[in-house]
Design the sequence.
């Protein structure tokens, strides 16, 4: 099951990276880890660094994927982003974004059916 979840997560992250590139963003890093947690995507555009959490689900029937980014997850993201900033010293502004990805599985492939990208989903 964990392997399947990782495949779904990777498909969602790949789709969001393409989405961001099409919007003119540069993908700086994927899966940045610190002692506090992980940030799925670090992207830059127009002097702003976006720390992006990707939530991929088969449906939003019971809850929106962004609802999984609760206060605890936000604190982990904030601390991880601060670790990133301290390590790499970007001279840009920054924000926290959440990408909701909905997919359907066909055979062994995951087809992305929708991406809802939420800029500045939460703040410090």
Sequence:
């Amino acid at each position: 099951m964990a392997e399947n979840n990782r495949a779904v997560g990777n498909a969602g992250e790949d789709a969001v990276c393409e989405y961001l590139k099409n919007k003119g963003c540069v993908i700086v890093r994927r899966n940045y880890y610190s002692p506090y947690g992980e940030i799925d995507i670090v992207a830059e555009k127009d002097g702003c660094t976006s720390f992006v959490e990707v939530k991929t689900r088969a449906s939003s029937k019971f809850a929106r994927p962004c609802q999984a980014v609760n206060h605890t997850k936000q604190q982990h993201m904030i601390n991880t982003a601060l670790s990133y900033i301290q390590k790499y010293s970007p001279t840009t502004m920054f924000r926290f974004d959440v990408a909701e990805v909905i997919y359907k599985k066909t055979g062994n492939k995951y087809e992305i059916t929708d991406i809802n990208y939420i800029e500045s989903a939460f703040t410090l």
